[in-house]
Amino acid sequence: MKDKAILEYEGKKYEFPVVEGTEQELAIDIKTLRSSTGMITLDPGYKNTGSCESAITYLDGEKGILRYRGYRIEELAEKADFLEVAYLLIFGELPNKEELNQFHEDIRQESHVDEEMKKILDAFPKSAHPMGVLSSLTSALIAFNPSSVNISSEKEMYHAIIRIMAKFPVLVAWTMRKQKGLPLDYGDDSLGYVENLHKMMFKRPNKDYVKNKIVIDALDQLLILHADHEQNCSTSTVRITGSSHAGLFVSLSAGISALWGPLHGGANQAVLEMLEAIEADGGDTQKYMNKAKDKEDPFRLMGFGHRVYKNFDPRAKIIKKAADEVLGDLGIDDPILSIAKGLEKVALEDPYFVERKLYPNVDFYSGIIYRALGIPTEMFTVMFAMGRLPGWIAQWREMRLRGEPIGRPRQVYIGENERPFVPLKKR
Ligand code: SDX
Fold first, then answer.
1. Cα-based distances in Å from 205 to 193, 201, 307, 376
2. What are phi and psi of 235, to 5 degrees?
3. What does each C-alpha distance from 182 to 174, 219, 384 come to in angstroms?
4. Whose CA is nearest to atom 18 of ligand 1?
5. Is 390:165 a contact under the CB 8 Å cutoff?
6. Ligand 1: which of 297, 307, 308, 357 to mutate, most ligand atoms within 8 Å of CB?
7. Where is 6: in which H helix or E strand?
8. Looking at beta carbons, which pairs linking 145-153 to residues 24 or more positions away fall under 8 Å?
9. Confidence class for position 148, pLDDT limits 50, 70, 90
10. How far does CA 257 lie from the centroid of its chain?
11. In 3D, which of 327, 306, 314, 318 has the Cα closest to residue 370?
12. Does any ligand 1 atom lie closer than 6 A to the CB of residue 134?
């Protein structure tokens, strides 16, 4: 046990245990703070607050390290496939061949979605943002899978996990096809998990589906890179929603809504829109750099900066390399990629960005690959949600299995003191 932390206030000393993680991170355990001092902490955005102990993902923001269950993201992105990584995140170990086959077979058995769900999808206008559609459909799934609502046993949890792993790709594909006015497609269960997702998304009604290995491999790697990221905004939303013992599907629906925000997963769409605006503006990157630095201007350089990484986001490095490879392999010369690289170069040499340790994050280059794969800009954050699905599931499962208490932060009240009611005629 590490030494204790001592808080001194008004001449009294209070001791608190110090918790050390397996990577030597230290935390002051303040579970007894309010009962012993009468005080609470105040930390808007939880920049200094740990919400839980977790064994799933490790980040080191200063060194730019990211590991899922101890495995480096660079190795997983190169050597594993998305379904393997999903199993690793959820159950804690890389699956052997029979475990992976069983996991995939269990998923295949649940890969149908009730036809009535199509009526809900039909009710949306084509102009509906895909993230709003996906969040609604994910929540609506409960009505057709009532046994996945109140789950407590690991067996019930496994069935709910298998169901959502099976049905979520269908909802992702249907969300895109709805926007494109294409008939809803179920793909082909004999295909790999990501290949079937791609087929469901892109299969044309009057053409045979032709697999492009470059495209499938790129999509698989992007999903791995987005699979988990410890206690980010949307994952914290999934955990706190699930902490009330709300079901897995509604907790995921809440997470999808949180991810939608442009400061979080919605940034990948905002990056592409920003790069397109710069291109339309004659490629004037300096103008946008100046806007990003101008405190009077709400504009931010989307895809830059991170709450944890104060170094390169390791995922951004991998995606930047993949963007060159995929566009090269597909024979695509996208001027947007050159604008992105130019913007990165200027930003990394600019004192404003250097002083604030603002580097490209996962969202800066990902949209360029999604675009090359034929995915519409408004679907970029849906693809982020597809990748993040196993991470959200893993975090929700860990929170429930550890019996974490319901999340309920305190506050510092700064409103009116007590005052007498004033009747309407006297106001
Ligand atoms: C994701 O948490 C995760 O792990 C998230 C994620 C995941 O995998 O789940 O990694 C995915 O959400 C990546 C981030 C995507 N968002 C963006 O790219 C949006 C642009 N970036 C920012 O809005 C911002 O950097 C955040 C939201 C990502 C982080 O914000 P913080 O940690 O709250 O930092 P801050 O807003 O307090 O900024 C610190 C300083 C400020 O300047 P000063 O007040 O010190 O003068 O840096 C400035 C900010 O104005 N700043 C930026 C900037 N990001 C921060 N200035 C211009 N452009 C930016 N992008």
1. 21, 11, 44, 19
2. -65, -40
3. 9, 21, 22
4. 303
5. yes
6. 307
7. strand 5-9
8. 145/249, 148/247, 148/248, 148/249, 149/247, 149/249, 150/245, 150/247, 151/247, 151/248, 152/400
9. confident
10. 10
11. 327
12. no
Q: pLDDT by residue (tens digit) across 262-293? A: 999 999 999 999 999 999 999 989 999 999 99
**Cα separation of 375 and 316, whole Å?**
19
Choosing from 81, 185, 228, 363, which is the catalytic residue? 363
pLDDT at 67: 98
133, 176 in Cβ contact below 8 A?
no
Report the C-alpha gap between 16 and 37 in whole angstroms: 11
Catalytic site includes residue 229: no
Q: Give me the residues paired with residue 304 across strands.
A: 360
Question: Cα 64 from chain centroid?
Answer: 18
* pLDDT number for residue 1: 59
> Quick one: which atom of ligand 1 is closest to the CA of 356?
47
Q: Which residues lie closer than 8 Å to 407 by C-beta, 6 or more apart?
A: 51, 239, 240, 243, 244
Our answer on whether the CB atom of 163 is closer than 6 Å to any ligand 1 atom is no
Task: Express each pLDDT in 44-73 by its tens digit.
Answer: 999 999 999 999 999 999 999 999 999 999
**Euclidean distance between CA atoms 158 and 92, whole angstroms:** 14
> Is 90 exceeded by the pLDDT of residue 350?
yes
Neighbour count for residue 154 (Cβ, 10 Å)? 12
> Could you tell which of 306, 310, 348 is best to mutate to test the pocket of ligand 1, judged by most ligand atoms within 8 Å of the CB?
306
pTM tops 0.85: yes
Instruction: Please confirm, yes or no, whether 306 is among the known catalytic residues.
Output: yes
> How far apart are the C-alpha atoms of 304 and 318, rounded to whole Å?
16
How far apart are the C-alpha atoms of 45 and 91, rounded to whole Å?
A: 29
Q: Report whether residue 354 contacts ligand 1, using a CB cutoff of 6 Å.
A: no
